[in-house]
Request: fold
Amino acid sequence: MADQTTSSCGDALPRNKSVIVVGAGTMGSGIAEVAAAAGHTVYLRDASDAAVERGLGMIRASLDKRVARGKLDSAARDEVLKRVQSTLPDGAMAEVGLVIEVIYEDLESKVNALSALESQLPVDAIVATNTSSLSVTALAGRLKRPERVVGMHFFNPATVLPLVEVFSGHVTAPDVAQTIFATALAWGKTPVYCRSTPGFIVNRVARPFYGEALRLLQEQVASPATLDAVMRESGGFRMGPCELMDLIGHDVNFAVTRSVYQAFFDDPRYKPSLMQKDLVDAGWLGRKSGRGFFDYRDGASPVVIDELATNRKPWVVRVEGDLGPARPLVDLLVTLDDIRLERTAGDGLLRVDGLVLALTDGRTATERAAALGEAVVLFDLALDYATCGRIAIAAAAQASAVDVLKAAGLFGALGKRVSQLADVPGMLVMRTVAMLVNEGAEAVYQGIASADSVDAAMTKGVNYPVGPMAWGRDIGLATVLRTVRNLGASYGEDRYRGSVWLQREVQAAS
Reply:
């Protein structure tokens, strides 16, 4: 597949062609604003006049905020508002070049809405769906001109987030996809192209970000607040998985996971969580309902992040061999004048006053302690050990409370807060990142998208600190594959299977 992350050979939709946006909710109104700001006349439609008026109100409020912040002058705001209309005058349908459907994630609802409109459109008009997980092939197959149907998936808020996923159905004409790609560019967005697949790029590749956290919560590894803190302060993510699911809404997140899982014929990699189902069944949907993983009601108690005491400073730290992704820790250790630093050959371990301290590799600390014949404390992956504010550790069953304090003391001396997780395979950041890389690798292997498109989608669409494909190369694809394989050995589940692409890359480099 040609890399279409930043270029396209098609022409954008001419500005004299109007756009119909079907669905006047938050996303629909945002897309309408983007199209109108780019110079198109936009007709906003919904099932009721009241819904359209609410959508127009959201556009006015959004533009007013931009004026108040000095990002737009009032004259430009008025011009954009003038281009968004609620009714089509006689003869206006002939000038429609694009319809963007932005309604509820239900195939029948989308088919019904577009079928009623399709017969009125010019034969060369493009019909785009903003679906986040449904098959554009299935939708197009129910319409009269399936070759003119394409996916154009924005991310919320559409006026802010730059990513647009462009995806073709089985019979989408190549020039249609190219036009939509070029149109997204002309509208100031960052389009990425992918083949139609359940979840496309973002909602497929991102499943482990939620799924691994939900699994660890079910395994009682740590509290939601502690998991979030580790993912933010060590993993470098803007939001932790629990707070992000609360923001998205558990009903929405759970529905997308179920959709992807069912579309992949119950592939265990995408298996929904019983814990999240319980939240949905209870009506604890997150911010919008007042409760989710966290309590958002007035007077709610503040969340507590579990932290260890870090005042036991070590005397001697020995670096045994190459620490791999944790090499930057050595540069930090060199700066500590009151700790004696020794270096020897070895298997990539630290010894802190005799205690074995090692980066997780997908095995439990207890398993590694059994193999070594001595106590082990593991630490988790960090995006940047030099600047991260928190490190997670996990202790083997063979380790003592003093051993835990030794490990915490070392990271405390390096200026880090320390949170202890229960001893589970792969800890948190490492297993999540490894599974994100593995999922991205599988998308590349199946020709869904290029590696560059996967990285662009995850950084531009959901604000990941690094694209998973680049992140995998940074920490080492061999490390990623070893982690995934060790997870599979621990759990005995096909959920943790290494992508053939990942295996091939590691084999080629050996």
Observations:
- The radius of gyration is 25 Å.
